[in-house]
Write a structure and sequence with these properties.
By secondary structure, the chain is α/β, with parallel strands linked by helices. The chain has one domain: Rossmann fold. The protein is 37% helix and 21% strand. Helix 1 packs across helix 5 and helix 3 packs across helix 4. The protein is globular, with a radius of gyration of 16 Å. This is GlcNAc-PI de-N-acetylase. InterPro entries: GlcNAc_PI_deacetylase-related, LmbE-like_dom_sf. Pfam families: PIG-L (PF02585).
């Protein structure tokens, strides 16, 4: 099986799907990581920050064992400034190259606009007659984004759980690479919060730790 994990920003892939990525690799799957945004000196970011981000991405790639990493390079926090058709075309090229069976994407109710626009663009790449490899599409939850959405009836509603008990500690180790994104509990992106969410999702599904998803489409 080939799994594609779509992250609007580096760290979303670990927060939402880090344990599952490790499990899929242990199961012998090919796993790809698609990063939608980037930071650059041209956009006003300090060179030290840009270099550090590149090093973080490489380190996370090594820790998880991603087989492929795709970087679309859209400016962070500005994805909504681009025509949706241009975004769909960029995603389409990755889908046609990697031919994923399983796709993980951010939830459409997330509070960050980059997440919502990413969802809309990816939706255009899941039609079976254009992308026949895609069999399963799941939305993941991102701490500090999903739980703050104000979607009412459209908020994240998990119905698919993956046991990550054997992989939680390595997920936390991978998240620690993004030290600038972590804070002190009760900050949502903290080791305590990540562990607590995994424990809660495990309790809902009969295991010690789990990641929860909203299954949006599946065909067999």
């Amino acid at each position: 099986m080939k799994t594609l994990i779509i992250a609007p920003h580096p760290d979303d892939e670990i927060l939402g799907v880090g344990g599952t990525a490790l499990r899929r690799k242990a199961e012998g799957c090919r796993v790809a990581w698609l990063i939608v945004t980037s930071i650059s000196v041209d956009d006003g970011w300090p060179k030290e920050k840009v270099d550090k981000r590149a090093a973080e991405i490489e380190r996370v790639r090594e820790l998880i064992g991603f087989d492929e990493v795709y970087e679309l390079g859209f400016p962070a926090a500005n994805v909504d400034k681009f025509p949706l058709g241009d975004l769909v075309q960029s995603f389409s090229e990755v889908f046609k190259s990697f031919e994923p069976d399983e796709v993980f994407l951010p939830h459409f109710s997330d509070v960050h606009s980059d997440h919502r626009v990413t969802f809309d663009a990816v939706a255009g790449c899941t039609k079976w007659f254009r992308y026949p490899s895609v069999k399963r599409v799941l939305a993941y939850e991102t701490l500090s984004e999903t739980e703050f959405g104000l979607g009412g009836q459209t908020k994240f509603s998990p119905n698919f759980y993956i046991d990550i008990s054997a992989h939680l500690e390595k997920k936390l180790a991978a998240m620690s690479v993004y030290e600038s994104e972590l804070g002190v509990f009760p900050f949502p992106r903290s080791n305590e919060a990540i562990r607590a969410l995994a424990t809660l999702r495990g309790a809902a599904s009969g295991c010690l730790a789990a990641e929860a998803f909203e299954l949006l489409r599946e065909r067999q």
